[in-house]
Amino acid sequence: MKLPLFCCVLLAWQLTPLHAETLAPLVDFLPECKQADVVPLKTELKVRNHNLWRFAVLRDVPEVARYLQQIRENATARRFDAVLVQKIKPNEHKLPGNYSEVLVELELFRFCDGNNALSDKSSDISGARQIKVDLGTMQFKTAVSGALQRQDASEYRVIVPPHHHLSLQEGAFGLKLKMTAEQVYALWGSPSADLTLQDGARLLGYGRRLWVYLDPLVKAVFTDSEILSGIGRNLLEFHPEFDAKPWLVEGKVAYKTDMVEAALKLGSWHKVRPLLWRKQQPGQQLKLRFEEFNPQSQQQATAILTGFHYSSSSAAALPVRMILQQQPWQDVQSFVESVSIRNLQQQPAASLFPAHLRLHQLVQRRNQAWWLPTSQLHVMLVKDEIHRIKLTAPVMRKSGQPNQIPALLKALQIPVTKAGLRLAFPDMQDVGDRFQLYRDDYDILIEFRSDEEQAEIEQLEIIYHYS
Fold first, then answer.
1. 83 contact partners, CB below 8 Å, separation of at least 6
2. How far is CA 250 from the centre of its chain?
3. Which residues pair with 446 in a beta bridge?
4. Which of 124, 165, 224, 361 is least surrounded by CB atoms within 10 angstroms?
5. Beta-carbon neighbour count of residue 25 at 10 Å?
6. How do strand 202-206 and strand 276-281 relate by DSSP bridges?
7. How many CB atoms sit inside 10 A of residue 312's CB?
8. Exposed, middle or buried by CB within 10 Å (0-12, 13-18, 19+), for 336?
C-alpha cells in the first residue's frame, strides 16, 4: 500500500511546477543585451474615468493591469523572457462620456544567451551597449553600436506641409478645392484613413480630426472628431505632421485662440451663429467653429477656436449621413470562413483577402494597415500576411446598419454566448466581461457588454502567430 501512495506523491510533486510556471516579468530598464527578434506593442486602452481617479499609479488601474497581465501571459506562451514597459500615460485626446484613453507601449524581448542583466541607463538608447558574457574564468567584452531602424512600408509617404495657414486665398495648408486625390497625396502624403462612402465619394483622414472630402475632386477640407466612433479613432495613427501643429487663420489667429482675441485680429466675419463664423468669396467659403471652454463653470465661459470648414459655397458640400460603402456579404462571409482558426494550419496569407474587399483603410502604424471590408470587420495586414482580425461596434458613428457581429461569429465558427465559449474552449480564461484564450498559434480576446451571463459580445480579436 505504501508503494502506490509514494508513487502518487512523487507524481504530484513532479507535476506541480507545470502549474506554478512564472510569467514573463515587467521590466522598466533596457536590457544590456537583447536578441533582435523583439515584438513592439502599442495600444490605447479605454479606461473608465472612475477607475482612473481611484488609483494613483496607472499600472493599478484595472483595465491597464488586466492588459499587462494578458501581455505577460502572451509573452510567456511565446517563449519571451520579459516585457519592457516603454510608456504608460493618459492620452491627450479626451473621449466623450465617462471614458478616457491610456497609451501603453511595450516590447516583448529575449535576453542574449547567458546574459539577463538590465541596464539602469534606460534613457541612453543611442550609445553603444556593453555585452558581458561570463563563462567560468573567461570573460568576453565587446560593444554593439547603432539601432535597428523601423521598416516602413514603401508606399506610405510622410510629407510635412510647408505651412499650416488657413485662408480663402491659400486654401487649407496649401490644399485647395477641385484638386484630385493624387494632388492631395502629393501635398500631404499618405492619409491615416481612406474611406469610400455609400454614394461613391471618398473621405481621407489625416491624423485624428482633419478630413478631406472628394466627389471625385476636393469639395471640402474640415476638422471633425465625431465621424469615427471610439473604436475607429483608436485605430487611427497619430499624425504629428497635422495633430501636433497649430494652424493659423489668415496668419493671425491660432487654433484654441479665444473668441475675443480672434474678433480683434480677424475683423468682420459673418456670424452664422454666435459660435460659427463665415467668410465667403465667389465659389468658396471658410467657416470657423468656436466652443465654450467648460461651460458649466461660472468663472470660465470663454469660447475658443476649435475647428474649421473650408468648402465650396454650395450649401450641400457634405452629405448629411456619412455611411460606408458595403461589400457583397457573400464575399465577406467566404473570407471570414477562410481565416477561421478551425480551418487554418499556418499563418493566413494576405492572398486570402481579396483585392475588392480592400475598400476602406485605417492606418495603425506605418508598416501595418487595418482594412475594413465592412464597418464592423477589421483585418490587419503586415506585409504578405494577415496578423489580426477584429469585430467591433460600427467604426462610423452613424452607421445606420444592423449588428453584423453574430453573423461574423457564425462564419468564424465561434459561439456567441459565454456558455457556448466555455464548452467550445475549456481552457479559455473567464474574467467576467472578458474571455481570453492563449495558444501557441493564435490568441482570442473577447469583450462582453457586461458581467451578466447573457451579455452580448461587444468586441472580438483573433491574433495569429503561427510559427
1. 24, 25, 26, 27, 68, 71, 72, 75, 106, 107, 108, 109
2. 34
3. 435, 460
4. 124
5. 11
6. unpaired
7. 15
8. buried
Residue listed under C-alpha cell 563563462: 135
Q: Residue 22's beta-bridge partner residues? A: none
pLDDT of residue 139: 45
Neighbours of 89 (CB within 10 A): 10
Instruction: Identify the helix (H) or strand (E) that includes residue 248.
Output: strand 248-249
Task: Classify residue 26 by its DSSP letter.
Answer: E
Pairing of strands 82-90, 26-27: parallel
DSSP 8-state code for residue 205: E
CA 329 to chain centre: 26
The label of the residue with cell 462612402 reads: 197
Cis peptide before 216 (omega within 30 of 0): yes
Is the pLDDT at 14 greater than 50? The verdict is: no
Single-letter amino acid code for the residue at 256: K
Give the SS3 label for residue 292. Answer: strand
What are the domain boundaries of the chain? Answer: 22-113, 165-312, 329-464
CA angle 135, 137, 141 (to 5 degrees): 60
CB 443 within 8 A of CB 436: yes
Q: Which three cell numbers stand for residue 111?
A: 535576453
Q: How far apart are CA 313 and CA 72, in angstroms?
A: 55
Question: pTM of the full predicted structure?
Answer: 0.65
Reported as a single tens digit per residue, the pLDDT across 53-70 is 777 788 888 889 888 988
Phi-psi group of 437: left, alpha or beta (phi > 0 → left; psi -120 to 50 → alpha; rest → beta): beta
Q: What residue type is 237 in one-letter code?
A: E
Nearest to 447 by CA among 67, 97, 76, 83: 67
Find cell 504629428 and name the residue: 240
Instruction: Copy the grid coordinates of residue 143.
Output: 560593444
Residue whose entry in the numeric block shows the C-alpha cell 477584429: 390
CATH class name, domain 22-113: alpha beta
Q: Reduced to 3 states, what is the DSSP secondary structure of residue 306? A: strand
* Backbone Cα Rg of the chain: 26
Residue pLDDT, tens place only, 68-83 = 988 888 788 778 889 9
Cell readout for 421 is 465559449
SS3 content of the chain, % helix, strand, coil (to 5): 20, 35, 45
Strands 360-365 and 193-196: antiparallel
Neighbours of 23 (CB within 10 A): 15
